[in-house]
Every structure is written in structure tokens, then in C-alpha cells.
Design brief:
By secondary structure, this protein is of the alpha+beta class. The chain folds into 2 domains: 123 residues, no CATH class; 235 residues, no CATH class. The protein contains 10 helices and 10 strands. A hairpin with a 2-residue loop joins strand 6 and strand 7. Keywords: Membrane, Transmembrane, Transmembrane helix.
């Protein structure tokens, strides 16, 4: 049989000679028929001839030059060999072309998909930016708009001695008999939406106003002057400086009186005889503007007080009445932060002496005491003192006091 001959273009796909693989698979379709064998130039010796030690394994065929062979067979052999080589060459070329086209097509498709994804991503981001810009347009932070509090304080002076007795009896014989004790007396009206505020926002404003009234008029620590922080936390931060000055350094100037913000008694003179302060009043909601709600509160508080001396007997209590009319303002930030702007505050309190200083802690007249000044002091319209700082005083109606037992 003829010896091994490499294909004309070398081993296919770079497969080394003698190693199985794709190159070996390409030669499996080759058929070594009789015409191909006869066309070989070398011929293997027979077994008998190989017994001779000097004899080579193969020999040249005597008809290597195709002497004595059938020319048709020779042509057939050459044709089949050439056809086989041509078929393998065409198969390799076609396979490489197909592979290259597939690689090129996959790369192009991947590039197109990536470009499409990038375009869609940019378009999505751009659309989101336009949507957010139109839905939530940029608005510069507004300047602080909280107005300073304007305060009016009026001392109510009795016409005779202050009635005394036990707290329960005093409440029962006074107009506060039907008042409810504590925070239960600050009742909330039904919350109804307005033109520009939802029902929930209206309820938030009402709740904040009630919290302010409870903390500033009913908290025992606030009443005793121990702390003012619970009230301060409910105020717009723009009003904190005015509030701090009113509490720390009160003045009768219409803007910095302690009583404008909260109820505080002089702890050196009086103490609560009953922690259950009686309350009754109303809350009214109005829409002041597109961005502002206002709540007006009008409540009367009845306190049972006794002298600060702990040796006072159980019959030494007296009633002290405070009427507070407050106007709160809420913008949308205040509603979100659960705080309020206190715009105006009107306070009437008695029994008190007309000569009492109303700028700081209140100094009630206790059981059995009489006012030293029966009539309000004279007012000089030519005096340089501001009108808001003028001491206000009025007579306390006897009907507002507990009736005799």
C-alpha cells in the first residue's frame, strides 16, 4: 500500500499530523478503491520476500510509469484523487466562509442590540426628567414668613372678697360646673376639606391647635413655671426667638408677655389645688389663602388654686378663670412638621388686682383677698408709653364667681 501523503493544503484547521481531531474526520470520506491502489508507486513486499533479512519492506512497482496498466483505470484513479482533493478543499473553504459570516453576523447583531438598549435608556431618563420637572417644578425656599405674635392681656378685678372652699364645691357652684376636666374639654369639631386643603390636612391643623392648648394651659409643669419646652416644640422656628425672650425676659410691650404664649402662675404665691382643670371652648377653621389655613380658638379654663404654703387647709381653695382667644396660622410646611404660627393672643384672667404686672407669671387673688385698686388706673394719651403696653383692667362680674354655699 502507498505511504501516507499529506493533503495538498496541509492538515485542515491547523490539526497536527498524527493527532485525531477534525483534520482526521475530513479524510474519513476518502475511499481507497482498486484503481487508487494500482496507481501507487510503491508496493509492499510479500511475507515470503520479507523473510530475507536484506530485503527492504517495500519496492518500486515495475509499472510505476503506468506500463502495462489500463489507461482508463489510470485516468479514473487520477480523476478520483483530484476529485477527492477538490471536494475536501471546497468543503474547508465553504466551512471557513460560513464560520466567518456567522461570527460577523453575531457581532453586528450584538452591536445593534447594545446600541438600541443605550438609546432606550437615554430616552427613558430624559422622559423621567421632563415628567418630574413638570410635576414638581423647582421652587426656591421661601423666606421666613412667620409674623411676630401680638398679645393683649386684661386683668379682671373682683368687686368684693374672693370666695373660698373645697375645689369640688367651688366648681359645682360656678359656671364651670358643666365643663369637662383636662384635655377632654378641648373638643375637636368635624374636619371637612376646604377648597385647597384635604380633610386630613384640616384634621392635622385642628390636632396641632388642640395640642398647643393642652400643653400651654393644662400641663402642670408649664403652669408651675418648671418648663416651657413642650410649648416651644409646637411653634414655627421663626417664632422661637420671640418666645424665648417672652419667657426669659417678659415685657409689657404687646409682643413679649409670657401670658401671650402660655399660662404660668407665680410658684412662690400659688399652687394647684386640683389638677383636673375644667375647660370649655370652640375651634373654628377657615382657609385664609391657597396655601394657608387658620384656626381660631376660644376657650375658658377654670383653675382651683391655693396658697403655695403647704399648710393651707382643704377649704382654702379658690377659683381662677382664664379666657384665651388664639389665632393659629398653618402653611403646608407647618402641617407637615406638626407645628403652628401663633398670630394673635388675647387673655382675660381674674380675679386679679389691676395693679398686677401681667407681663410675666400671673398673680391671682386667692380666697378671702380683696383688690387694692378698685378702678383701673388712669391712662394718659399724651404719654410716650406704647398703647399695647398700657395696663388693661376690667371688672370681674360677680356671676362668674362661685355662689355662696
Amino acid at each position: 500500500m502507498a505511504g501516507s501523503v499529506d493533503p495538498p493544503d496541509g492538515t485542515p484547521d491547523g490539526t497536527p499530523e498524527g493527532f485525531p481531531g477534525r483534520g482526521e474526520d475530513e479524510y474519513r470520506p476518502v475511499v481507497f478503491d482498486e484503481s487508487f491502489v494500482r496507481a501507487a508507486r510503491l508496493q509492499e513486499r510479500s511475507a515470503r520476500e520479507r523473510m530475507d533479512d536484506d530485503a527492504p519492506a517495500v519496492r518500486s512497482r515495475p509499472d510505476a510509469d503506468h506500463d502495462g496498466l489500463d489507461p482508463a483505470l489510470d485516468r479514473d484513479a487520477e480523476y478520483e484523487y483530484a476529485y477527492d482533493l477538490d471536494r475536501r478543499h471546497h468543503w474547508r473553504t465553504t466551512r471557513r466562509r460560513v464560520r466567518g459570516r456567522r461570527r460577523g453576523h453575531g457581532h453586528t447583531a450584538g452591536t445593534r442590540v447594545g446600541a438600541l438598549i443605550l438609546v432606550l435608556l437615554v430616552a427613558t431618563v430624559f422622559a423621567a426628567a421632563i415628567h418630574l420637572g413638570s410635576r414638581y417644578p423647582y421652587q426656591p425656599s421661601p423666606d421666613p414668613s412667620a409674623e411676630p405674635l401680638r398679645t393683649t392681656l386684661v386683668a379682671l378685678t373682683p368687686t368684693g372678697p374672693v370666695p373660698g372652699g373645697r375645689p369640688g364645691d367651688l366648681y359645682a357652684r360656678s359656671p364651670a360646673a358643666q365643663y369637662r376636666p383636662g384635655a377632654a374639654g378641648v373638643a375637636l369639631p368635624p374636619a371637612r376639606r376646604t377648597a385647597h386643603f384635604s380633610e386630613g390636612q384640616v384634621m392635622t391643623a385642628l390636632t396641632t391647635a388642640k395640642d398647643f392648648l393642652v400643653r400651654s394651659s393644662l400641663d402642670p409643669d408649664v403652669l408651675a413655671g418648671t418648663t416651657a419646652r413642650p410649648v416651644r416644640l409646637l411653634l414655627d422656628p421663626d417664632q422661637h426667638p420671640q418666645f424665648d425672650r417672652s419667657v426669659d425676659s417678659p415685657a409689657a410691650d404687646g409682643s413679649h408677655a409670657t401670658g401671650g404664649w402660655l399660662v404660668r402662675f407665680d410658684p412662690a404665691r400659688v399652687a394647684l389645688a386640683d389638677p383636673g382643670v375644667r375647660v370649655r371652648g370652640t375651634l373654628r377653621v377657615t382657609e385664609a389663602s391657597v396655601d394657608t389655613l387658620e384656626i381660631t380658638s376660644d376657650h375658658t379654663f377654670a383653675y382651683a388654686l391655693r396658697p403655695a404654703d403647704p399648710g393651707t387647709g382643704p377649704d382654702g381653695a379658690s377659683l381662677f378663670t382664664v379666657r384665651r382667644e388664639l389665632r393659629f396660622r398653618f402653611d403646608r410646611d407647618d402641617l407637615r412638621m406638626h407645628r403652628a404660627e401663633l398670630v394673635t393672643s388675647h387673655l382675660q384672667a381674674g380675679p386679679m388686682d389691676c395693679s398686677a404686672d401681667l407681663s410675666g407669671a400671673l398673680r391671682p387673688l386667692l380666697a378671702g383677698r380683696r383688690p387694692t385698686t378698685a378702678v383701673p388706673p388712669a391712662t394718659d394719651p399724651y404719654a410716650p408709653t406704647p398703647v399695647a403696653a398700657t395696663r388693661l383692667c376690667a371688672a370681674l362680674s360677680p356671676d362668674s364667681q362661685p355662689s355662696p354655699p
